[in-house]
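Can anyone check this?
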Amino acid sequence: MEEKYMKEALKEAKKAYEKLEVPVGAIIVKDGKIIARAHNLKETKSDTTKHAEIIAIQKASKKLKSWRLIDCEMYITLEPCSMCAGAIINSRIKKVYIGAMDEKTGAAGSVLNLFEDYNFNHKVEIEKGILEKECENILKDFFKKLRKIKKNK
């Protein structure tokens, strides 16, 4: 089941890739149904907060008419940064499934772990490595493409 949903998050990452955005996708699932989908739009919107996770949380909150996303699960192609991990905790998401880890800015175990190392009022379960290679490959391909574009300018 995890792979099925991570494939949906990868579809979102591909949409970001096509827009020359860092290809990160996120989906939120409640009761076995996808209630929100999003991908990075930071460059497109010129807004540092337009990460896939934040946009997905906003969409899910609107759909459920609540900021509390209790009993929801999030699937993310890349380990969340500290901003997104904070939003996940504050929105009360139950569990996060992560594809690839982010050794530079990851806040779910790579650089720090906001989900496990601190005593917040809400605990988020995490599971790592879902379709890890596919999630890593789309990022590697993207940055190769970006370097080529910059080199040819």
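Reply from J.R.: I decoded it. The mean pLDDT is 95.
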